[in-house]
Amino acid sequence: MEAVASLKALERAWEEAREGVLLHAEERVIYLNPEAARLLEVTRERVLGKPLLLALRDHRLELLCRSGGQVRLELRGRHLWAKALPGVLLLLDQTAEKQRLEALEESSRVLAHEFRTPVAGMLSLIEALQQGLAKEQEREVLGLLLQEAQRLRRLVEDLPLTRLPGQERTFALEELRPRLERFLAPQLAERSAWITWNTPHTVWANPDAVYQALLNLLDNALKYGPGGEVIVESSQDERGVWLEVRDFGTPLGDYEPLFQPGKRGYHAASVRGSGLGLALVRRLAAGWGGQAYGKAWEGGNAFGLQFPLR
How far apart are CA 310 and CA 299, in angstroms? Predict the structure, then answer.
């Protein structure tokens, strides 16, 4: 009686286990619990007593059952850990864990990318101070250095950076122009480029988030465009305010993949970069309830931001 009760208790535990359990003998299935059926995507009643391969439907798992050991593999869109003992196959779904790790890695890359901009700005300002400046210029540089330090502090306070909450307000897009031109001045000179502005609209968002997004778009245009003129233009319709950075490069074939982390266009092969700039732009735009996009225009390529009307 005690043995029977123990077996029933063991079976109840298997039935509730978060690990898939499959028992087999003479290459036929004699038991599998609900989790194993879910992971293998089979119906228990249809595979019990049937050949093992009918339940596994994967030669890698069949070989594992014969030889023993453990392995990690991708099976029908899931990432599984599998371990085989004599007559037993254990399965554990590690898809969520893998996705969390990938998300953490992506967040780490985005954080590094996000912090690089204010740090680079602060370093250039400090170098200017070291070289010696007139009193009036020194006060201006110190003011800019304070701005970058405050922005860095806000980034730290607002982690994670997917929304940058708490700093939203209505502001004129023209507010961002002086900061962006000062920061991009060396890059503009190096590329013999200039920016033409036509941004008369106001938006509701976090100014630091919009600054970062627009800086990334301008940086991309200067890095990958042909040089010369870069246009920043805003417009408005019933869907919201649209802010675009346009260059005169050869139109690209497909823009959407460029917004995926790590993806870079063919035109970027000779330019150093992480492939995170546009992915971050899309995250920032989502933070104020907008969107980021790329498209061809009559003169080349346009990458833009949309702001819902408030």
Answer: 31
